[in-house]
Amino acid sequence: QQVDFEAINALKPDLIIISGRQSKFYDKLKEIAPTLFVGLDNANFLSSFENNVLSVAKLYGLEKEALEKISDIKNEIEKAKSIVDEDKKALIILTNSNKISAFGPQSRFGIIHDVLGINAVDENIKVGTHGKSINSEFILEKNPDYIFVIDRNIIVGNKERAQGILDNALVAKTKAAQNKKIIYLDPE
């Protein structure tokens, strides 16, 4: 999470593009080279994504191509939304070591609810960087139709895997498990 300013300066970049965690270093980085922040607004994910893509595309004169790709993405979103069952509810979880965190609408993983239109099993999950700490009892109590799993363990090299954490009698009783609707997302 630290930035090696000397190494960046030695590269003599024409442009530095940062997001999220690097935002606190914006002022120091802009002393090295023009710096563009492309963070996402989770409450307005799609519009902030679109603005970021267009900002970068403009730097390279690729606005037309960017608009085409954005249009393709919006078409895919509409296709996905058209198959969403409005009566079903989902829980988005992140596993890290043996811990489970839940994320709801307008969170960093809220795109599933906010953009794709899949209802949240619990609208009261507060927005926070690290989500709401939960356990298998919470998952069973909420009994989601779908569980979307982001396994952070894969990225950070932990041996524990989400499947092992969720492979228990409580989660097995959920509608998601019984209907094989536990969906493991690519964590990258």
TrEMBL record:
Keyword Ion transport recorded: yes
Alphabetical list of SUPFAM superfamilies matching this protein: Helical backbone' metal receptor
Main location: other
GO cellular component: outer membrane-bounded periplasmic space
Alphabetized InterPro entries for the sequence: ABC_transptr_periplasmic_BD (IPR002491), Bact_iron-sidero_bind (IPR051313)
UniProt-annotated location(s): Cell envelope
Keywords: Coiled coil, Ion transport, Iron, Iron transport, Lipoprotein, Signal, Transport
Domain of life of the native organism: Bacteria
Domain Fe/B12 periplasmic-binding: 1-188
A Gene Ontology biological process term: iron coordination entity transport
Name of the protein in question: Lipoprotein
Organism of provenance: Campylobacter jejuni
